[in-house]
């Protein structure tokens, strides 16, 4: 009987120690990730000149939408992370970039693009699809500079 209690007490203590160590490890990992994230945000802010130098403008993309008889005319400004990303983007603009934009728009209906929420959805979809084509950096932001929906 005494051996049984001693065994249960030992197992209970080992389980408690394991739980405490696991919780400490999870907290330490979480806090370490938080510190790295906040440190990168405090880095040098982007100047307007850097934004201008790393922006590519595509004017007057006209394509049909998913609904019969509806089309869109749109101009976009692509803000890229750095000059290498901009050069990479410009090399692909007439092939992969424009084709991906047209295919994305062709799958959408007018209701999906209307309003600020629809435009935000379009730009976030384009960012995720277009970033897969870039090797030297990423698209930071897409601004819609002209928008006409028929």
Topology-level CATH name of the largest domain = Tetrahydropterin Synthase, Chain A
Q: What is the helical fraction, as a range of percent?
A: 55-70%
What is the strand arrangement across the widest sheet? 1-2-3
- For the record, the count of structural domains works out to 2
How many extended strands? 3
Order of SSEs: HHEEHHHE
Give an overview of the whole structure:
- The chain is α+β, with helices and mostly antiparallel strands and 150 residues long.
- It folds into 2 domains: 1-43; 48-149, 2-Layer Sandwich (Tetrahydropterin Synthase, Chain A), CATH 3.30.479.30.
- The chain is 60% helix and 21% strand.
- It has a 3-stranded antiparallel β-sheet.
- The chain starts with a helix and ends with a strand.
- Keywords: Cell membrane, Cell projection, Chemotaxis, Cilium, Flagellar rotation, Flagellum, Membrane, Transmembrane, Transmembrane helix.
Quick recap of the structure?
This protein is of the alpha+beta class and 150 residues long. It has five helices and three strands; from the N terminus they run ααββαααβ.
Produce the secondary structure layout:
Layout: H1 2-41, H2 48-53, E1 55-64, E2 71-80, H3 83-106, H4 110-113, H5 115-130, E3 139-149
Helix pairs in contact: 3-5
Q: How would you describe this structure in keywords?
A:
150 residues; alpha+beta; Tetrahydropterin Synthase, Chain A; 2 domains; three-stranded antiparallel sheet; 3 strands; 60% helix; 21% strand; elongated
